[in-house]
């Protein structure tokens, strides 16, 4: 008998999902194969859930175009009372797998520590984000699925309780749960979830509408610093990344890319010699590259590097994202700086013309940012295998499995469900593993698997990666500021010469401006009454990408540094100025004060620290990805180089799931922010990247990391993201400190290209 | 050629100039040791050769006859390695984890040579890159290990 609150008819979509032939078991067996794990244990409960959305949301989704409403996910409860969970989101270090286990486990009443989590394969059932989408990016995993994952856990619990009721012969309403078990208090009997998992398999999935979620006041795991599930495997070399994947009969391949995008391979001058090299299986001409296949990657790589290829210019470069032979970042910076147009307006308030006309003081400044590599430590790879039944298996790093699936299916002439996307752990991503037209190795792997009739794993060497890694855009931004008679900001006029990452990836402009081009200059909370913020679109030669915190990664640097200039021009303290411009904004005032308090009180400097060094501090704020951030950085100068001693950052994501993961993510994002502002720049000369590996492309080394303190504020506002938001305030906090310390305004990143005196 | 890895002698079918990294990963199927740069810049490929931390991506296997190679796969069972792994878990060091095999090997090498390293020792020894920025967590784990050196259950 069903418990009263579960008495509705079983949800039809759920049944369909539960029993759809060849879905989950197929996926699991693939994973078992890949990971050498035990796979589905006999007697395990394997559940696919239809989770009906609440009525208001259903209507909202319907109104937006009739997107499928059911939100199935995937759980396996094993007889040994552990849980296997297929996560809709990829794990790349950001802690998503653990957060998902917390959300599901909380409502299921199952310790997240008992969860084994893997990335779900591509499939409509896993597209649980609003609008029927799925991606791991935009710092959106937890906030977009917070309720959905809890409902999933609650449904699982209801089924387990029902199965327990049947086994014990008591009404479900007389049962309660404790972590991992069903308890019948009246008789003192209990059953582990594992013991009833087999019985629960035969039950209909209850209607989610009748199931209540827990009161947050009694949360056992959500909001707690639950230990991450992947720590031991990642400390012992057992974690499996795409680059580690292996299947029977597999060959490996290395490529030599065309030195410039758009060129195609012509004659291979030394083909015979290459084919005679140790271990070489075959040589293949591909789109924009030549590949060498061998059983061992080292042999393939040696041979690929030795290829002498005649590269042929395209007949119609305009039709492509083409890298001209004369492209260089130095000249391109000048091109960006020489743009004089007023650009297209992205944000406007008040009347800047009359504000500037009536201003007591006005001034200008030009800022610049650099191209950046993702430089995730795992070089990209893809393993492709055509199966005898005509299907294609791919193991590849990706942030958007269904998108890869659809595009690949189209390219190879299969239906999407014939293309299985397996998503191993990501060895870092930071935006690298979205679908980029010329930036993913899968086309090579597929072409080579076809050509050789064998499974092929392609690994791009670090050098080949840095030739095709799409870049974080650069920008030159012209600021004009105006102050009133009291020295307070009156007007702000900003024109950024840049190409946004979205329009860069699409390789064409959209109907609207690309939000990601200017976010962080637009959308600021400060009360500056007259504003005009515009983009001067300038197409870039290199391919562009999303990079951790996207537009905010550079735009908050521009804005927050110019804001300090406005403070100085008006004779105001930058902390006092920000407080004034945030008057009435309780959330941001609290946040800013929290960051300053965390640093021991506002102390701009310069001052002499106890070790005798001259130091100064800088302040900055950012509002990226639904979370609010405020940071203070302390710097000194040593041998002409900037040293960042300490960073204090306050974050308000509204509410949280795991404070320990947030602190770790803040450290990580702060490190990337420091890397960008201190040492990183991807430069081009003669159409080629100057740096092709970490010898010439610097990323933050251990001895340049700052001490970090993080304060998390739960204001109760709508939940925001975590992976990216701590980054954007870091570069401006550092640069504002450097400007204070040196007495000279610094307006460009990275600082390593400039020399400083304290 | 013969190659001793984690106390076991392997008959290795590889030419002498193949780097140890690729002999481990491809010939022997031991993928715990990672490829990050291939030019001795990042440290993802760190292993111990006769106890000293070494970047295996630039180390030809031909130079290793008679040497003892130790990889991440042996760390849980190693007295020092086991402690490092526990400290890594306790301090929740890894993020993506890709650099962490190398980080653990560097830490083990440090602690095998200097049971109670100073902050300076740690700074000098822990030079592998981590794109995820786990540097502070690595230092916390090593401070913990240094403080508890010699104590039971450290
Ligand atoms: S792979 Fe050997 S140091 Fe980077
Ligand atoms: S944990 Fe990702 S590179 Fe270090």
Automatic annotation (TrEMBL), chain A:
<dbReference type="InterPro" id="IPR052516">
    <property type="entry name" value="N-heterocyclic_Hydroxylase"/>
</dbReference>
<dbReference type="InterPro" id="IPR012368">
    <property type="entry name" value="OxRdtase_Mopterin-bd_su_IorB"/>
</dbReference>
<dbReference type="InterPro" id="IPR006311">
    <property type="entry name" value="TAT_signal"/>
</dbReference>
<protein>
    <submittedName>
        <fullName>Molybdopterin-dependent oxidoreductase</fullName>
    </submittedName>
</protein>
<dbReference type="InterPro" id="IPR000674">
    <property type="entry name" value="Ald_Oxase/Xan_DH_a/b"/>
</dbReference>
<dbReference type="InterPro" id="IPR036856">
    <property type="entry name" value="Ald_Oxase/Xan_DH_a/b_sf"/>
</dbReference>
<dbReference type="InterPro" id="IPR037165">
    <property type="entry name" value="AldOxase/xan_DH_Mopterin-bd_sf"/>
</dbReference>
<keyword id="KW-0812">Transmembrane</keyword>
<feature type="transmembrane region" description="Helical">
    <location>
        <begin position="33"/>
        <end position="55"/>
    </location>
</feature>
<dbReference type="InterPro" id="IPR008274">
    <property type="entry name" value="AldOxase/xan_DH_MoCoBD1"/>
</dbReference>
<dbReference type="InterPro" id="IPR046867">
    <property type="entry name" value="AldOxase/xan_DH_MoCoBD2"/>
</dbReference>
<dbReference type="Pfam" id="PF02738">
    <property type="entry name" value="MoCoBD_1"/>
</dbReference>
<keyword id="KW-1133">Transmembrane helix</keyword>
<keyword id="KW-0472">Membrane</keyword>
<feature type="domain" description="Aldehyde oxidase/xanthine dehydrogenase a/b hammerhead">
    <location>
        <begin position="236"/>
        <end position="315"/>
    </location>
</feature>
<dbReference type="Pfam" id="PF20256">
    <property type="entry name" value="MoCoBD_2"/>
</dbReference>
UniProtKB/TrEMBL annotation, chain B:
<keyword id="KW-0560">Oxidoreductase</keyword>
<dbReference type="InterPro" id="IPR001041">
    <property type="entry name" value="2Fe-2S_ferredoxin-type"/>
</dbReference>
<dbReference type="Pfam" id="PF01799">
    <property type="entry name" value="Fer2_2"/>
</dbReference>
<keyword id="KW-0479">Metal-binding</keyword>
<keyword id="KW-0001">2Fe-2S</keyword>
<dbReference type="InterPro" id="IPR006058">
    <property type="entry name" value="2Fe2S_fd_BS"/>
</dbReference>
<dbReference type="InterPro" id="IPR036884">
    <property type="entry name" value="2Fe-2S-bd_dom_sf"/>
</dbReference>
<keyword id="KW-0408">Iron</keyword>
<protein>
    <submittedName>
        <fullName>(2Fe-2S)-binding protein</fullName>
    </submittedName>
</protein>
<dbReference type="Pfam" id="PF00111">
    <property type="entry name" value="Fer2"/>
</dbReference>
<dbReference type="InterPro" id="IPR051452">
    <property type="entry name" value="Diverse_Oxidoreductases"/>
</dbReference>
<keyword id="KW-0411">Iron-sulfur</keyword>
<feature type="domain" description="2Fe-2S ferredoxin-type">
    <location>
        <begin position="1"/>
        <end position="75"/>
    </location>
</feature>
<dbReference type="InterPro" id="IPR012675">
    <property type="entry name" value="Beta-grasp_dom_sf"/>
</dbReference>
<dbReference type="InterPro" id="IPR002888">
    <property type="entry name" value="2Fe-2S-bd"/>
</dbReference>
<dbReference type="InterPro" id="IPR036010">
    <property type="entry name" value="2Fe-2S_ferredoxin-like_sf"/>
</dbReference>
